[in-house]
Every structure is written in structure tokens, then in C-alpha cells.
Amino acid sequence: MNKKLLIFALFAAINANAETVFVTLEKDNALAVMNPIDGTLLKTVPIGKRPRGIALSPDNKSLYVATSDDNTIKIFDAETLKQTGKLPSGEDPETFALSPTGDKMYVSNEDDSLVTVIDLAQKKISKQIKVGVEPEGICVSADNQWLISASETTNMVHWIDVKTQTIVENTLVDARPRFVTFTPDSSQLWVTSEMAGSLMVLDTKTKQPIKTINFAIQGVPNDKIQPVGIAIDKERKRAYVALGTANRVAVINAQTFEVEKYLLVGSRVWNVAFSTDKKRLYTANGLSNDVSIIDLESQTVTKSVGVGNYPWGLVVKP
Amino acid sequence: MKTFIAVLFTVMSLPLFAATKDKPKSPPVPTAQIIDIAFLNQEQTPPTETLSNLDLFVANKGVEGAELAISDNNTTGQFTHQNFVLHKFNVPVEGNVADIFKQNISDKFHYVITNLNAANTLAISDLATNSDTLLFDAGTVDDSLRNEQCRQNTLHLLPSRAMKADALAQYMMKKRWSKWFLVVGNTPEDALFATALKRSAKRFGMKIVTEKKWEHTFDARKSAQSDISVFTQSDDYDVLVVADEQGLFGEYLAYRTWLSRPIIGTQGLIATAWHSTHDLWGATQIQHRFQDLAKRNMEEPDYGAYLAVRAIGEAATRTKSADLKIIRDYLRSPQFTLQGYKGNALSFRAWDGQLRQSILLVAPRSLVAVAPIEGFLHPKTELDTLGFDQSESTCKLEK
User: Do B285 and A110 touch (CB under 8 A)?
Assistant: First the structure.
């Protein structure tokens, strides 16, 4: 191979893979910045008290972090990590979702049984919607039709019409729903229930469950299986579900809903995120203080990277 | 003044306006199911001989737990068209609980939560035998009510003394504190807790090397320095285990024993269903909600009452029913699970109506451990390593 071409190829390869993972560290009041390609922790940046929920704006320019004990959601420049603003999130913000268009943010207010809608351009609350007890999981469908709020103690998912911002329907789900996400085509809503140890797949049209997936792992007591974060690939071939204190990620065939494999990761695996090229999955492991890197082609855990105390959530910036 | 009123009016009318505006146009709201719950409580008196008046005495612990759960149930109920109403019957210390039950509750309510002592709880269970009543005992920890005196119509929310003693014993076993010095107070309740501790010692292979009854005064200035060091001289032991449920002398044992030993039981490291230091598994949220409502920390009786009302709520939501038979069957079925901020699902033991649950082991300012302690195994659920398991129970419930 000619030298120029080799350099070009290398450059292209680096570029194609270059990405940064940001991890919120609940107990360190900091953000870990990780290079996932060589599996190194680049730096740790102080970010505010008890950071949990984290998201990137659709243009990847702004990073939003819920700093729960500061009672605010902070906005950072995703390049420099300098704070550029903050949002009126209500008390103790933990989880939030961005609209696909990036103009609105929806925040779960656990203590007040509310979902707060924030207009991001004006940085103001535009509406508060009453939901069930202890709303936690929250997401918006990719087609921007549905906002979903899951209440942990009411055991319901609330279907909120994005246009009218009112609840249209409520679906009872298994005990203590924690995390909700739509399939990329918006046709199904996937809900994990931490206490029941199950995953429910709801049909967006009927808003009723079409499948309940239960997990069983040899040598792990059932009450240790506490499903939380979910990642579903674009073609809806496979889904990956973090199983909390079972310390495993379940690999699910998203067409047949069969559990194909359990991958052993770190302790109390909480949230998960795909790499930009969807070839890897990163998991935040709350009790072992690391991030596991899973190679999705071979379905093996290739590396674990120590990041700091209580990693909670993560996002990948291309 | 006028401006103030005007401002107040505007502020108050805002949410109203918002509510009207947000009302969905269709479909028409179905009629709500009403679920009436009676809460029968007898006021408590402060222990007369107590040494310590550090804590504010609350005569009606528990009621606010029920109120919080009603509000949680109704937040859910707005989506399921169910409305839960709490009817409080507060009996003064000298009042007759049975009379109040007969006059105001029996035949009027299907769901009755009791926050009473053991004798009154049993009396109410027997009075209610022939009526369509399901009783939720949120006040007692007595093992007799879960064994030979158990009743078909009664569910028990708080962990029994045997469950608490087992939780403590599991922890002591893990720490290898196997030689116990047992100190027992003078009240009948102290004797019951001592019996539970002895059962646990036997169950987990622990040895009670010395047992003494506290017969000294309850005056700290007189007793603490001199009596306790003399009282605690004995053969070597690993841990001083105390049975003093009212807190008449137990607090004064720490730092004054002849040998330097940890204190565990009703003082020192205690076993409880709920504590203000508990912040795991989302407990922070309910601690906040309770503090907002009651302006104090949530305690065990509040938690018991909370769970009772929530159990009714959960059963009504899942069965979409207010019918006693349907709810009663569901509560006792394996399908029923209750979220109680303890990490695992709570449910009722079929053989004695006891709510199976984790137990917190706490020091005054810190959560030390949660029982069942890791490593104590059970073929069905590790929660059944605490208290009387099916094979040990003497409760015979008619089918």
C-alpha cells in the first residue's frame, strides 16, 4: 500500500471512530470524560451536586446534566465543558428527555408528581403536567408524537400527546417502572420494571402490552434482577437491557423477544448507550465504579474502564 | 390589605384556570369507584418512667402514614377512576376501642386499619369475625397474633418480634458475635422480645452466656455510672443484647459496661421496619413526602399504616375493583406485590397473613445493614429467613 493512502486510511479510521463518552458520577459531583476507543479516562470535571440524568442536544453542541442536589439542570458547551446556562427544572431533577427537535425538555419531578415542560430557547417552564406518584422514566418518540412518563409508585406509563401536552391514556405496567424508550420507528414502547424484574413491550397504536419478557439467570436470585436502561438498535434487530444488581446486560432478539444471551458487566449496571457507529455498547456500572465496553459483533465485553464513584448515566458525542 | 387579597385571589385562581383549560374534551369520565377505609387508632401515653425526654412525644403516630398513602392512592386513582377515602376514628387513652368499633365501624366498612395494642387488635379481629371486614393490623409486632392467635380476617403489616430478632441474629452471626449477654427489662413486652431473641439464638447457633433482668432504678444520675458497670460484670461475651421496648434504661448501657462491648437489640443497633436514615431504593422520595406532610420524620407506625393503605390501593388498581372478596383474594394471592421502598417486592405470607419484608438495622444516625443479610438462603425467598416460616408456624387459618 502506498504511504499516502495508508495515512489517509488511518486518518479515516480514526475519524470514523473518534468519539467521547461523558459519564455522570453521582457521588463525585463530577463528569468523567472517556475515550472509548482506547478505553482511557481522559479527565474528570467538577460539574455540580449529585449529577444524574445527562443528554446531548441533537446538534451535539450542548450537554445537559441534571445536578439533583443543586435543583437545576445545567447546560454546558459540549466542546469546552464550560457552563453556559441553567434551567428551571423544579426540585431534585433526576431524569429528563429532549424533544427530537431539540426545542423542548421534559423533566420528571419525583417529589411533586409532575412532568415539567421547559422551553429551551427561553429557558422557562412552559407547562407542568400532573402524572402519577414518583414519575421517573421519561422519553419522547422519534416521530415527536408521544411523550411518555412512567410513575414508579403508581405503576403506570402515561401517554402524553406532544401537541396538546395532555395525558391521552394510561397503561398499567409491572411493579416499579424505571426506564422507558421507543423503538426507533416509534411503533413500540419498551418499559423496564425494576421490582417485577420484567420488561414490557407496548404497542403504540393500542397502548397495550404485546409481550412481557422475564429474565432468569442461573445462580442469580430473582430479586437481584432489576432491569433499568434499554438500548434498541435502529433496525430493531436487537435490544440490550441493563439488569441492575444482576450485573448483566441481557441481549434480546427484538423481533422474537427472546433473550439470547446475558453478558457479565460491572456491578449494578444502570444506564447504557450505543457508540456512534452502533458497534459497541457502553454501560454505567454504579457500584463497581466503571464503564464496561461491549463489542456488539462478537457480543463480548472487551474492556472495563474505571471512571469514578457511582457512574449513573452516559452519552456519546461523535 | 386589599392588594394582598387581590394577589392572593389571583394566585389561587391560576391553577384552577389551568385545570379547566387542560380538561380533556373526550371521552366522558366514568363514575369513580369509592373505596372507604376506616382507621382505628388508640392514643398512646408517654412511658411514665422514661429517663430521656429528648424526643418529642407524638400521641398519634401512624395516622399521617395512612394520610400520605391515601394521597398516593388518589394520585393513581385519578387515572383509574378510583377514589380512596380515609375515615379516622381516634380513641382516647381511656376510651373503649371495642365500643367505637361496634358503633361506628363494624358493618359500615369493609377495610379497617387498626393501630392498637395486641389485646385490642385481637378483640377487634374477633368482633369482626361475622362481618364482611378485612383488618389490617398496622400496630402490633406480637408473634402470638401471627401464630396461635392468628385470625383469617387479619393481615399484619409490621415485622413481628421474631422477624426483628432474626434480623439482629443474622447480623451478629455475620459479625461472629456469637456469645450474647442478654439484658431484659420489666415489662411483659420486654419478656416477649427476650423470648424472640432466645428463639433466634437457637435458630442461628448463638449462645446466651449470661441473662439478667434489669431491676435497678430508671434514674440516670443514680444508676448510670455505678450500677451499670457492676450489673454488666460477667463471663466474657461478644455483645450486649437488650430487650427494653419502652426505652426505660437501655440507652444508658452504652459506654458504661464493665467490658467494652457493642449494644444491640432495642437500643444501640436496632431492627426496625422504617427509619429516617433509610435512603436506599427510592426511600428518599417517600421520606420527603412524609416530612412535607407531617413536619417530622417517618417512623415505624407511620410506615405500617402507609403500607396498609397502599396495599388496598395496589389491589384495587390491579383488580380494577372495590369489591371486598376480589381485593381480599388478590391480596393473599401470589400475584400481589407491594412496592415498599425496600428493594424487593413485599407480599403477604399465605400461612399467617404477615407481610414479608426486609428489616433495617440502624444506629441512631446511620443505616448499618439490611436483613436478610446476604448469605442467608431460603428455597423460596430469602425474606422468609426472617420470622416464623411455614413449617414453624402454629397458625391454622381455615380455608
Answer: yes
Closest CA to A182 of A209, A198, A167, A201: A201
Per-residue DSSP letter, A125: E
CB contact under 8 A, B339 and A153: yes
Residue B80 touches partner A, C-beta closer than 8 Å: yes
Residue B103 per-residue DSSP state: I
Query: DSSP for B315-333?
Result: HHHHHT---HHHHHHHHTS
User: Collapsing DSSP states into helix, strand and coil, what is residue B9?
Assistant: helix
Distance CA B97, CA B192 (A): 24
Q: Which residues pair with B89 in a beta bridge?
A: B40
* B33-159+275-357: CATH class: alpha beta
B 328-357 residues inside an 8 A Cβ radius of A: 337, 339, 343-345
Contact B315/B331 with Cβ under 8 angstroms? yes
Decide if B106 contacts B128 (C-beta within 8 A). yes
What residues does A20 pair with on adjacent strands?
A317
Interface test with A, best of B22, B74, B339 (most A CBs within 10 A): B339
* Measured distance CA(A235)–CA(B106) in Å, rounded: 61
- Torsional class of A238: left (φ above 0), alpha (ψ -120 to 50), beta (otherwise): beta
- Taking alpha carbons only, the member of A43, A53, A48 closest to residue A273 is A53
Residue partners of B334: CB distance under 8 A and separation at least 6: B347
Cβ atoms of B83 and B77 closer than 8 Å: yes
Name the closest residue on chain A to residue B291, using Cα atoms: A111
The answer, for A113 touching chain B at a CB cutoff of 8 Å, is: yes
Q: Which residue on chain B is closest to A169 by alpha carbon?
A: B79
CB contact under 8 A, B345 and A172: no
Say yes or no: do domains B33-159+275-357 and B162-272 share a fold: yes
Q: Do A166 and B24 touch (CB under 8 A)?
A: yes
| DSSP per-residue string spanning B353-373 | -BEE--EEEEETTEEEEEESP
Q: What is the ipTM of this complex?
A: 0.84
How remote is the C-alpha of A246 from its chain's centroid? 18
* Domain residue ranges of chain B, discontinuous segments joined by +: 33-159+275-357, 162-272
CB contact under 8 A, A155 and B345: no
CATH superfamily of the domain spanning B162-272: Response regulator (3.40.50.2300)
User: How far off is chain B from A308, nearest CA to CA, in Å?
Assistant: 20
| Successive 10-residue mean pLDDT values, chain B, 399 residues | 40 40 51 94 77 71 97 95 97 95 96 97 95 96 98 98 98 98 96 98 97 78 69 94 92 92 98 96 93 96 98 97 96 94 93 97 97 92 96 86
Determine the residue of chain A that is closest to B22 in CA distance.
A166
Q: Which residues of A touch B285 (CB under 8 A)?
A: 110-111, 134
pLDDT digit string (tens) for A101-154? 999 999 999 888 999 999 999 999 999 999 999 999 999 999 999 999 999 999
